[in-house]
Structures are given as C-alpha cells and as structure tokens.
Amino acid sequence: MITFDWTWWVVLVFVFDITVRIAAIIVVPRNRKPTAAMAWLLAIYFIPLIGVFLFLLIGNPRLPRKRRRKQEQINDYIHDTSEHLDFGTLRPHAPQWFTSLVTLNRALGAMPLAGDNDAHLISDYQESLDTMAAAMRDAREYVHVEFYILQADAATDNFFRAMEEACARGVVVRVLLDHWANQGKPFYRKTLKRLDAMGAAWRLMLPVQPFKGKYQRPDLRNHRKLLVVDGKVAFMGSQNVTDSTYNLKKNLRRGLHWVDLMVRLEGPIVASINAVFLSDWYSETDEVLAEEIGLFDVSPGPGDLDCQIVPSGPGFEVENNLRLFAGLLYYAQRKIIMVSPYFVPDEGLLLAITTACQRGLEVELFVSEEGDQAMVFHAQRSYYETLLRAGVKIWMYKKPYILHTKCFTIDDEVAVIGSSNMDMRSFGLNMEISLLVRGEEFVREMRDVEDSYRTLSRELTLEEWKKQPLRSTVLDNLARLTSALQ
User: Rounded to two decimals, what is the model's pTM?
Assistant: First the structure.
C-alpha cells in the first residue's frame, strides 16, 4: 500500500509562499507610490491568492504600451502644431506664480494658455442638457460628443433629437462613450441602436473586449465630459448625458439625484477642448482629423478670460491634475474653496490643504452628506477629522442629492472646473479634463454657485464628528487602506 506523504506538499507550499512574498517586495514597489505599494503588499501578504490575482488583474495603472504610444504621438503632434500659433490676447498683469503654473501644465501635456475667451456656468441639470442640444441645432460642419456615460432616456431625448437633426442636415456627428461605464446600464443597447439609426460615427472608449483583441486594466476609465460644435462653441464639466438619477434602481429606491455644473465656452479655448476629443478619437480609430477640420483656425470669443485645458490620465507620465491642484493650494493667498464629490487625497495634497490652513487661509470643502459609492464614501470620511482639526470648513450637501460638481477656486481671480475629482482614482486611473481660468468675472459666477451650494448644505463640526460610532470609524479606516490600491 502506497502512503501519501504530506511533508513534501507542505514544503512546496512554504517555498511557493516565500517566493511570492519575496517577488512581491521586488515587483510591487517599483515606480509606485509608497502608500499604494504598501497597500498591495498588505493585500498579498494577508490574502495571498486573492491579493496576487487582483494585482495581476488591476495592478498596472498604465494604459497598454500601444495606447500610450498613440497618446504620445497625437500629443506631440498637437503640441508642435500649436507651439507658435496666436491663441488670443492675454490679460495683463498676471501673477508670476500663475505664469509658472501655466508653464508647468504646458510641460506636462496641456495646450497653450488662450486669451479672448467667454465662459458661463450652467448649474441647472436639465437646462444644461437643453442648452447643449440648442448648440447642436446650430451646427453646420461637425459635432463632437464625448461623455463618460451617455444614455438615451426621457431626460436626454432632446439632446439625442438634436444629434439626429444634425445628422439629417449632413453634419458629421462623432460620439465617444466609455465602454465599462455604460455596458450593462439601463438603455445601453437602446442608445447604441439610436446612434446607429441616426448615422452618427461612434466608438466605445477604452473597450474591455479581449475576444476582439481590445483589453487593458478593466477599471481604467475615460471620465471626460465634453461637447464641441463646429470648433466655435464647447461645453465641459461634471455632468453626464443621462437622467439625474442615472436610471438605476438603487438610486430611484433611495431618491437620489445628481447635482452638476457645466461651463459653456467660446473663443480659442474651444480648439484646446477639441484637441482632447481628437486625441481620444485617434486612440480609438487611428484617424487624425486635426487638419481636416481646421483645428487651429481659431477666432476671438466675446470675452477676455485666459483659459488653459489640462488633460490628465494614465496616458500621461505623471498626474497632471494632481500637480495643478497642489500648485494652486500653495499659491493661494486668501481663500480656497473646493467642491469634490469624491475626496480621497494623497499625502501631498492633504499636506497642501492643511498647510494652507496653517498659513491663515480660509479653506472650505463641499462634499455630499450621502454617498453613492460605499468604499469611496467611507474612505473620504476617514479624512474629515484631520481636515476639521486643521481648520477646514466642511459643508455637507443635504441628501437625497449627490453633489457631483468638480470645481476649485482660489482668491478672487483663478478657478478650475472639469471632470476631475480630488481622489486617487481621478489622479491615477481616470482620463480627465480640467479647465484653468483666470478672470474675476468668472470667479464671481463660481462664487454664486458656491453660495447656492452653501444654502443647501449643513456644516460638519469637529464636535459632531467626535460622536461617530466605532463601527463607522472602522469602516472608514478599512476603506482608506483599500483606496491606495492603484
């Protein structure tokens, strides 16, 4: 009778375990932030099989090499082509720090600073959709639509009818929507059928379709929201093209509605937004359209705002949006107001915020009282005590509304608005677009929006926070650890 010796199996398992742990120490920290590396190592050490599987699945925060090469090619083309073009007359007496920040953005892949621009905010959800529809009805050459989530539903019917009417007039309508964010959602198939029926040229962004040879880390997203009409008018901001409930049963059951902010732009800056669309279109189609549509045939807008578009995401070497935000925090002299639905800062950003308080600045943060994503919501909460103790005034937008706006103002002259949250996902995993604006009149519009948010929010105090139950603290801290898994 043959006896089974477990000794060799124990030895093999032990050797395999030690090998994985040693390999993890060598592989995981390479070119990775210490916090992210430590989180991955903890996952691999404490739950080896699951930790290794997750690391192999989502451990690489970069786009595939082929996609990065295409991104670099189109970035270089746009950068070189726009290098010596006239992008309008800039406002005089720019602070030295602002010029330095613009130079930083340009070095990291942003378009040139453009003058002679007009920008106005749209804070009403349905008004934003209808205003974009009205702009498309004036289109004569092309319409470029790029949204993280795009759904043909009752709220967006006017938007889609405007696209259909444009196609019927012979206008070229190009559409980009994120694959992972839309698949399996309500109206997904209906939306694609409607795009086909109208004759729009559409593509899925960052498709996860391994059987079609299209695959990258599945949680990389193109989170941008933008619309360009004829190279003359553009829209961008935080709002997706969908009902304010996102048509999800869980949101309808909880009565949740999203609150967003978009900006309508005219002037040379429209070319910069169009360039971001064209770079994403090239990534998905290999079509270079810059010369065909006359990308840089720009003309002054009716305003005199200085604007710069800052794209960011895993196609770039560094976190462009994070560096922009950190720079503004250190340059601010009197006031900082941040609106971010998902606020999970890294150490550098948290240090910049608390340092601003210690420098005597007035610092405010707007977040939602209720969260729609449990892990992010609890990770965000884990920073509240540090912020409150530093002197940050935290405003919680009252439920059942989710404050989805992403904007940032400093002092009385400079603002940022776009698709980027102040969290690790937006810094490292999402493709985002941010608009830097210099102009007191625009900041005044932002202040009006901030005031309206303040009236619909309640202030969170340190005394209230100290009364949080232990179970909430545990959940918050656990979520904070997982937030670094990039």
Answer: 0.90
